[in-house]
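Morning!

This is the sequence you dropped in the shared folder:
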Amino acid sequence: MTDIAKPLARYSAWHRRGDFIFLSGIIAVNTEAGKIIRGFADLPPGIGPTIGQTGEFSVDAKDGPILAQSWFVFDRLRATMAEAGGTMEDVFKLVQYFRNLADFPRYNTVRRMFFPGTPPVSTVVEVSAMMPSDEILIEVEATACLPVLR
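The structure's back. Tokens below.
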């Protein structure tokens, strides 16, 4: 489950323009399986405990969807950056869309794992809906700088 973020419609996952890489918004949908990431069970084995899975049903049922979707989105972002020839360190700007801003603290704990140093500049917005389903809790759009070899 480390493929790039694959678009759900007719648009590109990413484009390079000069030194910049522009990534489309990434959501937690495993396009190969045709499945929305709904919780820890939808992630590769061993990931859940590293991002906050407790083993307590009530806690994991509440926190699992946002934690799992956050990890999945950043894992796809990492893979997409690798395909573009870069790394997460090249990402300098994120635009983060939330169905509910109350999810931000849990999302932020996962984001820190993918950006352990200086975090990218960010915009955070709450929206009323995202495609393709109300089960999508976040969408993350990224911009990176990767100087063209001369």
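Headline: The longest helix spans residues 57-83.

More detail when I'm at my desk.
O.
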